[in-house]
Specification:
Keywords: Methyltransferase, Transferase. This is Class I SAM-dependent methyltransferase. It comes from Amycolatopsis coloradensis. By secondary structure, this protein is α/β, with parallel strands linked by helices. The protein is built from 11 helices and 15 strands. The strands form 3 sheets. A 7-stranded mixed sheet has the order 11-10-9-12-13-15-14, with helices on both faces. A 6-stranded mixed sheet has the order 1-2-6-5-4-3. Strands 7-8 form a two-stranded antiparallel sheet. It starts with a strand and ends in a 7-residue tail after the last strand.
């Protein structure tokens, strides 16, 4: 990952999400009221905290409460609200000394977590507290791992790589009958969890692609942990060269713009990846083979895409549906009406002439 670094006041600006250093940075401590801090942050000022660490977290929580809620609003209004909230909360800043040492009293040791994301540091820096907490949380997930029952093992996500905490799509890949075992492509591998499931199911060779270097590094580490030597990783926009009898893809589910690198695992503006996958698939799927496209119907529930549009995209790409596997999500934050589907797609046969 290549964080943005901007020198300001003797400290670099560190971020993984591309936000810019606030033009005005105000030094504050626990003498400031939450209302005044919110007024400054909402106006665009950065708030450089100089109190103890628990005080910074308390202020962040107070700012969050003052941002209000958009619950019950239409999807786009909720996204706009979350975007504004993220901007305001991201303006509460904390210092890091050389070596990513957090100098605040009663602060945690963040050195290892920051080094994983930003690399080594020999200079002082400023970082958003909200982003720092996310980095620390991601490091804890990386160490702890996510249990994948169908693997009988854990997957360890890296910061910025989508974690398979919603495991129903993994279950679909684990239970759907394999059309072949000699070769499979895993498109947009992320943590590598689906490639690992295919290898554990007996697929002899798996080629896993992704266009994010951090995802490929994460996948390679997971394959090494699991002792899976038959999986190749390749940096590619979508497909590797050649054809396979099985192609698996779990693309982002919502066709709207992503605001952060992590959101690119969920949001696919204009369905760019989905369309690229479907349009190019006939050139990479062996005749008679299957492509497993995994999609939630959440976009349909939110009015962002219709089922007719999805089926029409299949038809325009020369594909037909051989079958489908459905599953309800188990995650408590999932939409209660949501269904995740594994579409079994094949190349449509040319009509037989009379």
């Amino acid at each position: 990952m290549n964080p943005q670094s901007t020198k300001d006041g003797g400290r670099r600006w560190l971020t993984t999400v591309g936000t810019k250093m606030p033009r005005t940075v105000v030094a504050i401590d626990d003498g400031i009221t939450a209302d005044e801090a919110f007024r400054l942050a909402a106006a665009g000022a950065g708030l450089a905290w100089h109190g103890d660490f628990p005080g910074a977290r308390n202020l962040l929580a107070a700012l969050s409460r003052r941002c209000g809620t958009a619950a019950g609003k239409p999807f786009q209004e909720q996204r706009n609200h979350r975007s504004r909230r993220a901007r305001i909360l991201g303006r509460l800043l904390v210092p890091l000394d050389p070596g990513h040492v957090l100098p605040l009293r009663r602060g945690p040791d963040v050195r290892e977590a920051c080094a994983e994301v930003f690399g080594p540091s020999e200079t002082a820096s400023l970082v958003s507290l909200r982003e720092l907490l996310g980095i620390v949380g991601a490091h804890e997930w990386r160490v702890k791992g996510v249990e994948i029952p169908s693997l009988g093992a854990k997957i360890h996500p890296h910061h910025g790589v989508f974690s398979p905490v919603r495991g129903e799509y993994v279950d679909l890949v684990a239970r759907t009958p394999l059309p072949a075992r000699q070769l499979a492509f895993d498109i947009g591998t992320g943590t590598g969890v689906l490639a690992a499931v295919l290898a554990r199911r007996g697929v002899e060779r798996v080629v896993a692609t992704d266009n994010e270097p951090r995802a490929l590094a994460c996948a390679r580490e997971n394959f090494a942990r699991l002792g899976l030597d038959g999986i190749e990783t390749l940096h590619a926009d979508v497909f590797p060269p050649g054809r396979a009898p099985l192609v698996v893809c779990n693309p982002p589910w919502l066709p709207v713009r992503a605001h952060t690198p992590l959101e690119r695992a969920v949001y696919d503006p204009g369905s760019r990846m989905l369309k690229a996958f479907l349009d190019r698939l006939p050139r990479h799927l062996e005749p008679g083979g299957e492509a497993w496209l995994i999609l939630s119907d959440l976009a349909e529930l939110l009015g962002l895409r219709t089922r007719e549009e999805l089926l029409g995209a299949f038809e325009r790409s020369g594909l037909e549906v051989r079958g489908r596997e459905d599953i309800r999500p188990r995650h408590p934050r999932a939409n209660a009406k949501e269904v995740t589907t594994l579409w079994r797609l094949t190349i449509r046969a040319a009509p037989v002439p009379d």
